[in-house]
Design goal:
Layout: H1 2-28, H2 38-54, E1 66-69, E2 72-84, E3 87-94, E4 104-108, H3 120-126, E5 131-137, H4 152-166, E6 170-174, H5 178-190, E7 199-203, H6 215-222, H7 225-232, E8 234-235, E9 246-248, H8 250-260, H9 262-278, H10 281-294, E10 300-301, H11 302-314, E11 324-325, E12 328-329, E13 339-345, H12 359-362, E14 371-376, H13 388-404
Parallel strand pairs: 4-5, 4-6, 6-7, 7-13, 13-14
Antiparallel strand pairs: 1-2, 2-3, 3-5, 8-9, 9-10, 11-12
Helix pairs in contact: 1-2, 2-9, 3-13, 4-5, 4-11, 9-10
Length: 407
């Protein structure tokens, strides 16, 4: 019922958004003498903030069309090289002069609310020196019920499938995928799979959430799995293609994200209002771009969400060596030839410091010379894979680690 009310609210706000959009044109029209007054700019700014705060946002585009290589700009073309009902394996194909021997990297994007485009900056920073692929997850509300379920075990199997498709690649997991990626590599190593990745980089992931637990970690521990199923799982309403599919809705996830830092979001919108009144178009455009991405959320399959809460956040089956995936025991100690790097942010309020580093404690067979850990000072969760610190300080270290272990 909650999902239906959310859709009804969006529909009910449509006339108000149209009025707000029209109001912006009226109060910014250069032929309107009143538009040059402070009052008119304030009215236009208020309409602008309201319209952008209430509109629905779909999946953004990556929008990466070129990358600098050897002093030239190489064109970049997106191509889908493998398809699954819940995910596309997307390749950022570079034109000449891209070196043919650049390391092939699979970025496993979070399936945790936002689209894979949230990692646009991650992809852009890696492209000059790497052949980049990414898991582009599909909004569960667009997947018909007839396509079947998708749970955490399916996620692990899909990572294995993509790594086998690429062969001899490196894998990078950003946030939540650290758990299924580590499981997938463990299973591949135990099976002697020749496609087992050459290196594995885990960034801001919840390998062991008992270390420095954050607010989301404590919430997962304080409620039963039945509570999560009853409280947040909804059925997709009409007219969406995934009608009647059980999901954890994106709008609930967005509410949770924003409530963790509500003061910052309110302050950001107030700054947006004042920037518009002052006529600071650049700052206003940057605000719009950020929130267009931030508010673009997707629904998750309920079975995947609930199994993740159970395995990773409540029973801690991976660090305790008790995870059985489709009858296969997940044993990180089986990993011997895959190099391991972990990256954390000093102020991460999603995956606390030490949670990702815990991977080193359970991957006991990897030689010390093929391990690395990096704690980035002064960044939170998103700063681990986005922004200036990622580009200047983290990415060069990750790239060097990948290159060192490419042979």
């Amino acid at each position: 019922m909650l999902y239906q009310l959310h859709e009804l609210q969006h529909a009910a706000l449509t006339p108000a958004r149209l009025v707000a959009e029209a109001g912006q044109h009226v109060f910014r029209n250069p032929y309107n003498p009143f538009s040059y007054s402070t009052a008119a700019r304030a009215m236009a700014a208020a309409f602008d903030v309201f319209e952008h705060s209430t509109r629905p946002y779909g999946r953004p585009a990556f929008g990466i069309t070129g990358t600098p290589i050897a002093g030239e700009t190489a064109a970049v073309e997106e191509e889908v090289v493998d398809r699954h009902p819940f995910c596309e394996l997307r390749h950022f194909k570079r034109s000449a002069p891209a070196p043919a021997d650049d390391p092939r990297v699979l970025i496993v994007a979070p399936m945790s609310g936002h689209f894979a485009t949230l990692l646009r900056d991650t992809v852009r920073a890696l492209l000059p020196d790497h052949d980049v692929y990414i898991t582009d997850w599909i909004d569960a509300r667009t997947v018909p019920v007839g396509e079947g379920r998708f749970d955490l075990d399916d996620y692990v199997d899909l990572v294995i499938r993509f790594l086998q498709h690429l062969g001899g690649a490196h894998v990078m997991a950003v946030c939540q995928p650290s758990v299924p990626v580590l499981a997938a590599v463990s299973l591949m190593a135990a099976a002697g799979d020749p496609a087992t990745p050459r290196s594995m980089t885990l960034m801001g992931g919840p390998i062991d959430t008992r270390r420095n637990p954050t607010v989301p970690n404590k919430l997962a521990q304080s409620r039963s799995l039945a509570w999560f199923e009853h409280s947040v799982v909804q059925r997709v309403p009409l007219p969406h293609a995934g009608f009647m599919r059980s999901v954890y809705p994106g709008f609930l996830q967005l509410t949770g994200f924003m409530s963790m830092n509500i003061d910052k979001h309110v302050a950001a919108h107030l700054r947006q209002f004042h920037d518009l009144v002052k006529g600071d178009g650049d700052s206003a455009a940057a605000h719009r771009a950020f929130y267009a991405e931030y508010r673009a959320v997707m629904d998750l399959p309920a079975e995947y969400y609930l199994q993740t809460v159970d395995v990773a956040f409540q029973r801690h089956l991976l660090p305790d060596g008790k995870w059985i995936s489709r009858g296969r025991k997940v044993e990180p100690a089986a990993i011997r030839r895959t190099a391991l790097m972990t990256v954390e942010g000093e102020h991460d309020d999603i995956s606390g410091v030490g949670q990702t580093q815990a991977a080193h404690d359970i991957c006991t067979s990897i030689p010390q010379r093929r391990r690395a850990h990096y704690l980035q000072a002064g960044v939170g969760h998103y700063g681990v894979f986005n922004g200036s610190r990622w580009r200047r300080e983290i990415c060069p270290r990750v790239a060097a680690f990948i290159r060192m272990n490419d042979r």
